[in-house]
Amino acid sequence: MFHAYFVYITTNENKTTLYIGITNNIQKRLSQHYFDSQNAKKSFAGKYNCYYLVYYEGFEDIETAIQREKELKKWRREKKNKLITSFNPDWEFLNHQVI
């Protein structure tokens, strides 16, 4: 199954802040988050150094991906933590595991 869009969750090094986003190029987006955290700090992810990938889902169409992103953003932290743990039990940083 081809995934053109991704909903993803990043965190900071201490795993205290979560950022939920959507992209069609996950590696490029992670690079943008990293660059912003090291430089301008204009975005939420940049200000809080959220460039460590801990969760992602692939989608074939943008509408479904947007709907899922909005759903996850409404969740309480505890529910987000459970989702991440079910996908990535040790909360490993997955930046180099995605293409």
UniProtKB/TrEMBL annotation:
This is Endonuclease. Residues 3-82 form the GIY-YIG domain. Pfam families: GIY-YIG. Keywords: Endonuclease, Hydrolase, Nuclease. The keyword Mitochondrion does not apply. GO terms for molecular function: endonuclease activity. It comes from Flagellimonas aquimarina. PROSITE patterns: GIY_YIG. The lineage of its organism: Bacteria, Pseudomonadati, Bacteroidota, Flavobacteriia, Flavobacteriales. SMART domains: GIYc.
